[in-house]
Structure formats: C-alpha cells, structure tokens
Amino acid sequence: MVNLESSSSYALDHATASRDLVFETAEETTADRLALVSIHDVMPETLAKVTELLLMCRQSAVKRMTLLVVPGKEWAETDIAQLKAWADSGIQLAGHGWVHHCDRIQGLYHRLHSKLISRDVAEHLALDEAGIQRLLDNCADWFSKHQLPVPELYVPPAWALGSISLNALRECPFQMVETLAGVIDVNQQRLLRLPLTGYEADTLFRAVSVSSFNRINWLWSKTSGRPIRVSIHPNDHQLKLKRSLQRDLDRPINAIGYTSLRSLSR
Ligand SMILES: [Zn+2]
C-alpha cells in the first residue's frame, strides 16, 4: 500500500522567465503507475535546461519532481534564489555529490564503471570511507548554509556509492540514499529495489543499450507494482532518446516524492 502525498501544484520560476508558470495538476488516480521523477546534475550551468525540462514535465502533468543538486559549483546568489523558489513551490531538492567530477580514475572497477556508465563523474569511487563521509557532510551543510531545505535524499553521481558501509552511512545527514539498485532507508539499513529508466544517450550504442534497459525496467515496474524511477539528465530532451523521454512522461504515471517510499509495504 502506498500512502500518497497530497497532490499540489508547483511553480516554475527562472531568472530569464518574465512570469511564473504555475502547474495545473491532473487528478490522481490510483490506477496510474507510481513514479519517482528526478532531474540530475542541477548546477549553475544547467539551470536553463533544467527549467526547460521542468516545463516539459509540467506539460505532461507530472505532479512531483525531485532536483538533484551539485553543491560544489560556482553558485551565484541568483542561482541559489532560483533553487529556493523551486523548493518553495513544492519541488524536492536532493544532494548529488560535491563537484560531480573526479580527476583520478583508479582501480579496475572504477575504470570499467567509468567506461560503461559514469565516464568521469563518479567522484565517490576515487574516495575512501572517510572521504565519502566528509563529502556527504559538506553536501548537507551547503544546503543549510544557503537557507535551503536540507534534503532527505542523497544520490551519488552515476549512482555509484563507493566503499562506505551501511553503518557509516547511518552517521550521514541523509535519510535516504539512492543507488543503481534502488533506495536505501539509512536508519532501517534496508534497500528497496526499484526499477530505473534513463535517457542520457549521445551515441547510437548508448541509445540502443539504454532503450533495452528501460524496456526491461518498465516491465519490472508493471509486473511488480513498484514505483519506477524516471531519471532525467539536463540534455536528455535534445539527445537521441528525447522521444522516449516524452513518451514516458506522457504515460499515465502518478509521480510521488521519495518520502512516500517509507509508506510502501515491502
Ligand atoms: Zn549526475
């Protein structure tokens, strides 16, 4: 059973927009597929594209959104104000790494991960446990320092958590951590496995492999009834899977926030 959060509209407000764009939400129907819709890599340099994607989601009547924010970038005051406006309008913010980049790729696992999935963004894989803990602390501190709501959710870049134990994770400031496999409830030390779709495909190889991955995951969501994670990256609406993204947003999905996962019976 899922206890759905109350439906609310959320507003878009971008520095370049001349007026606020307020979401008109569709009625929730319990027959719809539950979905967790997130936009990754929210940074000063991606805010314009994030705004376009939020508009796209609004036009597809997606009611709940989560933005994955990368704190260790050059954030201007106007950028922070934009994040605050989004948060005030009901959009959830989540922590997403620190700089979203790693200079050194070490070890076979990291090299393979980098080649196949993450390129050079999986910054946790270059850190030891103490380094990952420091990163998580810094990430949470950044939100409170800027008077932004401290997120409950943390998503490591490329979903690569690296070498940190569940016990060590318990000391981190976040209640939920998302990995490739699903979402970890940090206090319960429990992983809820969840299907996942992505659309970041700038080559034909990626387009074909990500499409197959998505098909399997929609099927898993359908047969299991588990919420599907629809993960969007800032350029996805201009890349090879842009039509798949539009089609998936237009499906009869009922977008929920990550906190609703706590009410899911397992
Ligand atoms: Zn990312």
Layout of helices and strands:
Blueprint: E1 11-12, E2 21-22, E3 33-42, H1 47-59, E4 66-69, H2 77-88, E5 92-95, H3 108-118, H4 129-145, E6 153-154, H5 166-170, E7 176-178, E8 182-185, E9 190-193, E10 196-197, H6 204-224, E11 228-232, H7 242-249, E12 253-255
Whole-number mean pLDDT = 85
- How many domains, as an integer? 1
Q: Specify the overall morphology.
A: globular
CATH architecture call: Alpha-Beta Barrel
What is the CA-CA span between the terminal residues? 9 Å
What name does the CATH topology carry? Answer: TIM Barrel
Helical content class:
25-40%
Radius of gyration: 18 Å
Percentage of residues in DSSP E strands: 15-25%
The level 1 CATH classification is: Alpha Beta
Q: Which distinct ligands sit in these coordinates?
A: zinc ion
Helical stretch count? 7
CATH superfamily: Glycoside hydrolase/deacetylase
The number of distinct β-strands equals 12
InterPro entries: DUF2334 (IPR018763), Glyco_hydro/deAcase_b/a-brl (IPR011330)
Protein name: Polysaccharide deacetylase
Pfam families: DUF2334 (PF10096)
